[in-house]
Design brief:
The complex is a heterotrimer, with two copies of chain A and one copy of chain B. By secondary structure, chain A is mostly helical. Helix content of chain A is 57%, strand content 12%. Chain A is built from ten helices and five strands; from the N terminus they run H-H-H-H-E-E-H-H-E-H-H-E-E-H-H. In chain A, helix 6 packs across helix 8. Chain A is elongated, with a radius of gyration of 24 Å. Chain B folds into two domains: 100 residues, no CATH class; 103 residues, Arc Repressor Mutant, subunit A (Orthogonal Bundle). Chain B is built from nine helices and four strands, in the order H-H-H-H-H-H-H-E-H-E-H-E-E. Chain B has a three-stranded antiparallel sheet. Chains in contact: A-B, A-C, B-C. Chains A and B meet through helix 2, helix 3, helix 5, helix 6 and helix 8 of A and helix 7, strand 1 and helix 9 of B. Strand 1 of chain B pairs antiparallel with strand 3 of chain C, so a sheet runs across the interface.
Chain lengths: 210, 256, 210
């Protein structure tokens, strides 16, 4: 199958590249997650015209829809294209969510908790911006575990709830106060040092290899 | 004023020694201690002269090397003390401990290199955040979970989040770093030296305590030396280095 | 290859269900994202035995690997299965990516981490003995990046902290488990590269000792 297609790619750049494009497109859509991608973004990443992007998208969409082995499809939402799970698999997703195997706090809840711990007070919208996903459920879970609480309202139009950690949170993790949270890497400084060293060696080499 | 430029060329004295062993094509199991000590000290001196930061461990190792060197020079006395042949075999080579440390360290240096490769490979793969599955849960019941996590789990989750690469609009405008060009700095230095018409202390060539400026200045000086536009002079180890412009009327004053 | 496998699976009720399972599995893995799923979780959601889950996973993995049209693959990271983009598509993804401060680990951090990974649990003093330099800073960085954790206390007078690697460590380096670490070189032969340092040293000497 593979070989056959490769051989066919005699004329023009299209044949072979089309194959790769679908793969690349799937990668892009996958990594974009729930935020999706616009035609323009895809066109810029692939460096091909929008009309061609559309036809590749269409082809990929058809394949995903029709292939019974596939569990994901392409959907168009608010001007963006994104991947989503096939509807008929919903019962299994439900089972996964309610599965007794999920005994520990999920990654989603832990992420959310960490964001709140380090950035409190913070609104749900801000958390969602950092995570790039809806965060209603993790907030719910954390609230029910008394790890977080509502800590006032944000100023401005929405007057959204602000979230903060609780005393139980500190107790649970054995912390006396929030100051005892491990510091986050000082990314800026690190980066700077790295850059500096790189700069030094690059210039060094340039100078002497020239 | 003193400027400390830390250069992570070597991770430590063991790293430097390994480098020397490799470079001089020495058998690690039979290190010529005198030679390697000499080379090691040259490096330390050079760093010192350039007012580069030297971690104290480098100096401790220098002392260790010198100690081994002197032990090696001591006359062998096994014939006198250990009369039976068996003991001779257990006669300790003063280098043994160092060799052992070097070999041990080298293993992990290699392993670090393997990790670097894995890090790069992993960096080529992109993942996606977990989907929001609220719609699938029974009327938004809180997850029935036990809190069975540690602080590390939370930190780990957060790091993963930070690591997660977000696909977004390509950044149209990136603010370019203001770079000082080496060429420009070379011209400045040369002009400065020519106007001065005498030698100038090396350290005085670094007027700003700005890291990038120091690095660029250093490189400019090296380039000027290479092009033989300036001369560097020093009376002896640990003494002040002087720099002056070459030529300009009077024939260059040789420095070698 | 695909066809061949499908034809083979003709006996019993498998035929149709196998197909659906792959689709469901893809849906589940997609939804789980970088949290990944354990065999146990999948087995509970699909209500099939772990051994069967493994064989479906393997089949799906093979298909994704071999199909040039696919842009995603199944990887095993820190004890879970998850989807990830194909490495060869990375150049296109990079164009769309906004990675805030995604710095790689420094040489000092990597050396320290290597020692911890192979010798855990290990104290700071032991690490410093091997490296021959102070190691406080790299340990700090590794802690705040959640690559290592305190794993108890050493016996004896000091009761020093012992360090070990975390799940995040495995994930960061794309490892299934600690068993997957490349074997520690027993006897490294002479030629190991250090070109940058070489160049640095040569030029240094050339310049200043001439």
């Amino acid at each position: 199958m593979k070989k056959f297609l490769s051989k066919q790619s005699g004329k023009g750049p299209n044949r072979l590249e089309l194959i790769k494009w679908k793969s690349i497109l799937e990668s892009l859509l996958f990594a974009a997650g729930d935020e999706g991608l616009t035609l323009k973004q895809i066109s810029e990443a692939l460096e091909i015209e929008i009309s061609i992007v559309e036809s590749i998208l269409e082809e990929l969409k058809q394949e995903m829809d029709n292939d019974l082995n596939r569990g994901i499809i392409i959907v168009q939402l608010a001007g963006t294209y994104q991947l989503a799970t096939k509807k008929e698999n919903a019962p299994y997703l439900k089972k996964l969510v309610d599965s007794p195997g999920n005994t520990t706090l999920s990654q989603a809840a832990l992420e959310t908790l960490a964001i709140i711990a380090y950035r409190q007070p913070i609104t749900r919208a801000e958390i969602e911006e950092i995570r790039g996903v809806k965060t209603e459920r993790p907030l719910h879970t954390l609230m029910s575990k008394a790890m977080i609480k509502e800590a006032g309202r944000a100023e401005g139009t929405g007057r959204a709830y602000l979230y903060g950690t609780t005393k139980e949170f500190l107790d649970y993790f054995g912390l006396k106060s929030l100051d005892e949270l491990p510091p986050l890497p000082d990314r800026v400084e690190e980066e700077y040092m790295q850059e500096e060293a790189d700069l030094f060696f690059d210039k060094f080499q340039e100078t002497f290899n020239s | 004023m003193q400027y400390n430029v830390k250069i992570d060329a070597f991770e430590g004295p063991l790293d430097l020694l390994l480098h020397l062993i490799n470079r001089l094509e020495i058998d690690i199991y039979d290190i010529p201690v005198a030679e390697i000590t000499g080379q090691y000290l040259i490096y330390i001196h050079t760093m010192k002269e350039l007012k580069l930061d030297i971690a104290s461990e480098f100096l401790v190792m220098a002392a260790t090397l010198l100690a081994i060197k002197s032990k090696m020079l001591l006359p062998k006395h096994e014939e006198n003390i250990h009369e039976d042949a068996e003991n001779i075999q257990f006669e300790e080579d003063p280098r043994d401990e160092l060799v052992e440390r070097l070999i041990e360290y080298r293993k992990y240096k290699e392993a670090a290199h393997d990790l670097k490769t894995l890090e790069e490979e992993r960096g080529l793969m992109y993942t996606k955040p977990p989907s929001d599955l609220s719609d699938f849960a029974k009327e938004l019941q809180p997850e029935k979970v036990e809190m069975n996590v540690s602080l590390y789990d939370m930190l780990g989750a957060f790091q993963k989040l930070l690591r997660r690469k977000k696909l977004q609009k390509p950044m149209a405008t990136k603010i370019a770093r203001q770079e000082i060009s080496i060429e420009k700095r070379m011209t400045e230095i040369l002009l400065e030296l020519k106007n001065l018409r005498r030698r100038k202390s090396f350290t005085e060539l670094f007027p700003y305590p700005d890291k990038e400026h120091i690095v660029v200045t250093f490189l400019a000086i090296l380039e000027l030396i290479k092009r033989k536009e300036i001369d560097v002079e020093q009376q002896g180890n640990f003494e002040e280095i002087f720099v002056e412009a070459v030529g300009e009327g009077a024939e260059s004053v040789g420095t070698y």
